[in-house]
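Quick start: what a row looks like.
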Amino acid sequence: MPDQQTGRSGALTSSGTPIGLVWLGAIAVAIVIAVALMYAPAVGGYFFNDDFQWLESAYRFDSARFVHLERYDHFYRPVIETYFYLGYRLFGCDPRGFHLLSIGIHLLVVWLVYLLGRSLTRSRAFGALAAVFFAVLPGFADAIAWISAIADELPGLWYVLTLWLFLLYLRGRGLWCYLLALVTCVSCLLTHETSATLPVMMVALEVTVLWEQRRWPPARDLARRAARYLPFALLTVAYLAIEYVVNSRSYVVNEGHYRLGWHAVPNTLDYIVWLYVGKRTLLSHIGIVSLGLALLIVGTPRVRFFVVWIVVNIAPVAFFTWGNAGRYLYLPAVGFVMLLADAVLAGHALLERRVSRRAALAVTLAVVLGLSARFGTFTFKSAARFAERTQPYRAYVEEIRATRPNPKPFDTVEVSEATARPIPALYREVAARAAFCMDNLSVTIR
């Protein structure tokens, strides 16, 4: 049987043999350059809103806090607390280090998307296309441009890594893959509460693999297969119990900002519109529902898996009542780019039956470049817009530094009312402390 990972040429082929190592290296370099250019404006941005509260927690970091649930009244994310503590130790209160780290983690997730896509399809072309589209997709730009949105970006890393390791285990790569998947699953759960969907997608992944192989296990083997999900299920249940205790005290739940209801349906449809950068209209919603149902009914097992990925990972955030936030699309976008990559390769295979191989390749590359350019343009603009939103905080901090260049602990610093006006009252004091990376300053408005 020929190896589908290699090919005599670097071109796309309908057999899924697209890309040689030279082409793969060139694509990787192009992705790094594109991501650096798109998110360059973000590097020049400052801290924003919740960033200052995370810095505040970094000043007071104590790992013993993790076992005292009574100290939490919003969410339980020990990995994020540790991330900001380590960032504070490395970069102090310089936002550039945090921004560069967010971009670096995004590139790492892009690589994992390639690995998962290639392992799932045994096609370098599929993995490369999914990675390219994920690198430039604009819907989740805030997840990279906003430092605090690492809470949405970092779980994406653990989530994709866990599924890739579990897929390797399913393909017979050894128990070590299963054990590592358990470790990364724990990391994922302790990073963000939406990670609770991970066991669902693991089951969906195995069903997809079996469906594509057309090799269903005998009934007597089902119990053994189900047993290997038990550790993941127990970990998830334990984490959800912690989240229930913590979130029962959260203003988000108690004030009705997150609740079950039919509002989740239009929210889900709007999120999908954001993925392809469309217009939020009734026609768009009807088209999404119609296409989604058609793909679930007549699509390949792989296509169904991608559709399920999108819906399952949008579901936890669709119940917010205060509107959608693009940063929540970071994980659903993985399913979307794989669905898009599958569509591009299917279109290429269709073209090869009607025109010459060279012409089919030219058309396909034009489509890929066109989509990438469109997505990349929106991403650059989104990163620039977000960086602009941080400038009032920069002006606020610079005035404080100019007014009181060397404050002592427990001093009070002053800022003019005009400079403080754009800053929400909730963040004025913590932002003033970030000006000097001190935990014990107060601010007064003159």
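That is the whole record. Residues 357-389 form the longest helix (33 residues). The two ends are 77 Å apart (CA to CA).
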